[in-house]
What does this fold into?
Amino acid sequence: MLQQTQVLRVEPRWHEFLAQFPTLHSIASAEVSQVEEAWEGLGYYARARNLHRTARLVTRDGADAAATLPSKAEVLRTLPGIGRYTAGAVASFAYGQRTPLVDTNVARVLQRVFLPKARRKVAATENALWELAERSLPLKSGAVWTHNQALMEIGALVCTARVMRCGQCPLRVVCGTASRVVLSPVSDAVAAPRRQR
It folds into this structure.
């Protein structure tokens, strides 16, 4: 539900959806139209159809009532509608796997810290961001959840698309972008540089 949709919009719908479909088996056993109806208001209905297809695949068309999603990101990526980010998020947050994830917020943070002069929408930059995310993971898999969540939160709250709150950022001492900005004595925030495409 969180693909391309903000948490504040998803949260109330998530609880309703979970009440109606508490397991993969319940999703797989439903008609796709029922899943789409429960999804109503969130947009991107292909996500609902992919969720239904994934539930049917994982549960073997509803035959396995105890089925769960795979724990490995590379296996998750073989399922309908699950890309690199979603696979990393599920593997990391649900299973504690040592797996990177790069959403818009994480990409912004990593680029500003390590690649301040790189152009964002270039394939080489995207690949470099995933490599950086992988290399920055803690060695202990138990700390990966916190690490990935922290990068997402820094990007959402501190290092936003419009405002960089460098004075509040725990990464400022190693940040390539923060080292090039001058903070005002009355504010710890600066306007974000215009993005190059």
